[in-house]
Every structure is written in C-alpha cells, then in structure tokens.
Amino acid sequence: MQRKFDLIALDVDGTLLTDEHLLPERVKEAVRECARQGAEIVLCTGRGPMGAFPVLEELGLNGTLITHNGAAIVEFEDRSITFQFDIDGELLEPYLAYCREKGIHFDLNTAYDMLVESVSEAAEAMYLQHKTVPTVLPAGGELPEGLVKLSVFGSKEEIDMVQGDWERDEPGLQLIRSGDLFIDIQHPEASKGSALRRLAEQKNIPSERILAIGNYFNDISMLTFAGLGIAMDNSPEGVKEAADVVVGTNNDGSVASALREYVINPQH
C-alpha cells in the first residue's frame, strides 16, 4: 500500500510525553516504525532545541525540528538554524517590567540560549523536567540580539491573571498560551503552522500528505494546516474542535494508537 503521509508533525509536552514527562515505549516503537516506513518525523514544540533534542535522541531519530512554537527551525545533526523570527527587544520591555513588578518568573530565549534573571524552586524543578539549564543574567543588563521568545511560568491562576492583563493591552507582539502554566510572547507571524508550511514548501510536500498531532492552543495552527490534524483527549475543547480526529490521552500513549491506525496500518 502506498504511504499516505510523508511528514508527521508531533507536539512534545502533553502529546508524546506523559504528564510525568516520560516517553512511553509503545509511542517510541510506533514513531520509529513510521520513520522506517519512510515518513519524516518532525517534532513541533514550544521548547527550545536544547529541550527538544533529548526527546529526538530518545526516539533514536534525527532531522529537522520546529522549536519555540515555530519561531525557529533547526537541524539536529549540525545544530544549524535554518530560519528564525527575531523579536525587537524594545517591545519586550513592558512585559519584563510587569513580570518584575508582579514577581512572575520569566525566561528570554534566543534560538539556543535560555536566559533568566533568577530561578525559583518551582522554576528549577520545571527546567529539570524539561532537561534544560538556563543561564542567569545580571538584572538590568542589556537584552541580547536574536531573541525569539519570552516565556513566563507560574501556577495556572497566575498565568490566567497574566493572560487577562496582557490581552487587554495593545498587541505589539503575539501572545501564545502554550500550556496551563506557560505563556509565550513572540513575533506576530511565528506559529507552528507557519513553520510547518515553510518546511513543507522547502521539501515539496503538499499539506494533504502531512499528519499532525497536538494537545494545546499553540498546536491549532499546525492541526488545521495538516491534511489530518489529530488532537489528544487531554486537549482543551477548542483544540479538539479544531482537529479532524480526537484520540486518547498522552498518559495512555495514544500517539501510538493514532500512528498505527492512520499511518502504519491504515484501514481507510
């Protein structure tokens, strides 16, 4: 039977990984089988490359990654950056002032570097789960060039408050709710969907031959671009409504079930 999908775009947190940030064996096996059958596997994540590379290594694969919610496309083998959306540091200043005033944890990201002014105990545990090590900057220093993302982290209640406050402001940059505990501020044109479109055009792959799986609002753009967009059952309702299909949860390893049904042993 001819392969139906040439590219499989996979979100990481809440999709491939369980809530304990583990990669189930059955998911690894299914992803590897898709790769053996000739499909290109592309991780599409809100994480930066250094947080995404360990997941690709655990899968035993290499290739292209869409990182920072589509703000940077990188290559695993030589660590090259093939594309990135820079943001103007001056536009970030009001967001940084807000975080400092309210005591909200934030990190600043270039394509490869994660920079913080301080690290709380909760943030340190989060970075450990994501297998990333931020660099501590002196407070009040100049912002570096090549920033692609400001990410804020806190309790769901804190992040709900931040989202409410920031959505009332005049939007100079894009606000992306990338998880219950995270908000990302990025270039207005950056998204997983736009990065996936760019990558598909480079590889001459039509959208109908792309399958995408995700679980949160930052995945909607890639789910709607792909020929088949699959949402996890642990997704918010708005994400499920945007998808073509809903499967089980990340904790059940349901990416494996989806790949077996639609890629490895398709019955339709």
Please give the CATH class of the largest domain: Alpha Beta
**CATH level-4 homologous superfamily of the largest domain:** HAD superfamily/HAD-like
Amino- and carboxy-terminal Cα gap:
11 Å
Strand content: 15-25%
Provide mean pLDDT, rounded.
Answer: 93
What summary fits the major beta sheet? 8 strands, mixed
Q: List the quaternary state of the chains.
A: single chain
Give the H and E element order.
EHHEHEEEHEEHEEHEEHEHEHEH
- Provide the spatial order of strands within the biggest beta sheet: 5-4-3-2-1-12-13-14
Tally of helical segments: 10
Class inferred from helices and paired strands: alpha/beta
CATH topology of the largest domain: Rossmann fold
Over the alpha carbons, how many angstroms does the gyration radius reach? 18 Å
Low-confidence stretches: none
Share of helix among residues?
25-40%
Q: Which CATH architecture of the largest domain would you pick?
A: 3-Layer(aba) Sandwich
**Overall spatial form:** globular
